[in-house]
């Protein structure tokens, strides 16, 4: 069972439903704004600001450290400062705090980062307090966890990155988690990602992605066929630079050498995670965290509002959102096939063999956008270009 707080204002002070006990997991998703100096997360024994703090997590960009401490009867304990700094200004994050008998385990973006031994009994914790320069998307309190679930729960060891993974400059490569044939205690098994069936109705053949011939939009009974020249597939000069990628870790940046061109198609097979709240697909220029990359096409699937946002961003400023859809077609933990085709004047998006939405170009030239970027609550089984 899980309870959530969605988009609270900061500072935020609220209860921890059911209290804290062994196996309780608190997941916090949010964004660190550009220019942020500090933010903090506190597990407290009451609502009064002077209440004891069983866990004080202070993220300090000015010193690039994360301080862990406790405060009891108004007195701070000894700070713990060792470990990595996994946060980036201007980027989303997911923090997981898992309560165990001996202490708390803390992970950031699916990577275990720190352990903190109890100094104040976790049974006394009744509230959470968040303050500083931070935007919170949601706080989730999960009563029961399964340490062998790959998506959505606390990682039992660093996430394994496949050989094809391309690490953006702002992401620190984690270690590799061993994958034994028979999982043994303490070893993190990573389940295989199921492939799509060979004949799922009208879905295009995965080996040769093709855009559906009936892009009827909100009226699927109407066949709208563009002139033949618009259907000519892009023929890249170097096929190796657009090689297929299988089972990439998320977030994932796929370099499109030479940039986008009309006639190019990208074919993405995957599934939202079982507890997905959103996932994002961008065509953007590079992956540098600052200045933030311009985005020619932002496709943001939001389960919490059952909406799909299409937009673009230039000079760190978002343009007007497009939100109109005939229905919300995604389901948590259900496979999908997505095709994005680049036309001379627009992006065309098809889902499971049916045309879904269009988005007209707002920025040119297209070839300055050289990166396909995928992030948040999604498991991707393959990415292919044609």
TrEMBL record:
GO molecular function, one term: carbohydrate binding
Keyword terms, alphabetized: Lectin, Repeat
Cross-referenced CDD domains: GLECT
Every Galectin domain range: 12-142, 252-386
KW Methyltransferase (keyword) present: no
PROSITE patterns: GALECTIN (PS51304)
Statement: the UniProt record of this protein carries the keyword Repeat: yes
Name used for this protein in its record: Galectin
